[in-house]
Amino acid sequence: MSRRRTRSAGERVQNHPDPSHGCADPVSCSRPFCAPSSAGVRLVAAGSTRVVVHELPGWPISASALFERLNAMISREHLVDIAGTDPFGAHRHFPLLVGIRVSGRVPQHLDFDPGEALRLSRHGSGPDVDHLVRAWCCALLVITAGDHTDDLNDTAPQLVESCLALGGDVPRLAERLLAWRAVTEEPGTVGRPGRDHGGADPVALLGLVLLRAADDPADPRLGDLARTLADTFTVPARLPSGHPPRPVQQVRRRWRHLIDTVLAPLAPTGSDLDRLITALRPADRGRRAPRQKAPAPR
To answer: By the 8 A CB rule, do 141 and 155 touch?
Structure first.
């Protein structure tokens, strides 16, 4: 009798459809997405984290298309690796990452858990980087609102690089995500007095230009975007209202590899792209000559 009850309980655990079934050791559990409950974290549809405040004519936008495509490929092992980038908080990150993966929804606001694991995974680099993991983490960082350290300039270059490495339809879906990010703002800032929402985020637009140029440098839509960005980075006063100014040197440093590998070979093919490259790459004539030592007093 006792043996029968024990076997029945084991069968119920194995067939339980809820990924947060309360396993005592989720990391070692054989179930694909076993985790303790992640209750208390509000998960929402990807498109509801920000508000569209203006348009980008001719460019389709989507907050969810790339995330859904990548999310379907993320495995339990990937989530264990992501959580493990913060070894002291992995036990807290893991169930929250599982909740995101299984539900296909994202946090309304990205707190330290699991935000720290996503940020650490974002900085993966080198020949052994897992581009699927990095792209998934970067997509979440682009979609959700985080703290003051979540600067798009720190995330978009890695997103673009990983999506280009993954290939297929992923770069086109990344274009839609960055176009969405460019024309949206966080809900708490939309009604702020004196905010005119006058332009799209130039960092998101730079990522969009790189993705499109890598796929089709002859796309007629590139000209307008390249001119807008060249003006923005040449004349900082033209930066759209509501977007904090970033030193051009900071943008150059983050995007240098992609500028050199994607845009630079295309410079002779179009004056607009050439202007943008000139605005983003440091000019030799702008470098200061080394200061000479003053002669020693006699």
So the answer is: yes
Phi, psi of 166 (to 5 degrees): -70, -35
* CA pair distance 11, 24, nearest whole angstrom: 16
Establish how many alpha carbons lie within 13 A of residue 166's alpha carbon, considering only the half-sphere containing its beta carbon.
25
Residue type (1 letter), 149: T
Q: Give 4-14 pLDDT, tens digit per residue.
A: 333 333 333 33
For the stretch 250-291, pLDDT in tens is 676 778 889 999 988 887 766 788 888 888 875 433 433 344
With contact defined as beta carbons under 8 Å apart, do 138 and 81 qualify? no
CB 264 within 8 A of CB 226: no
pTM for this structure? Answer: 0.80
Separation between Cα atoms, residue 82 and residue 76, nearest integer Å: 10
User: For residue 257, what are the contacts with CB-CB under 8 A and spacing of at least 6?
Assistant: 157, 161
Residue 61 burial (CB count, 10 A): 19
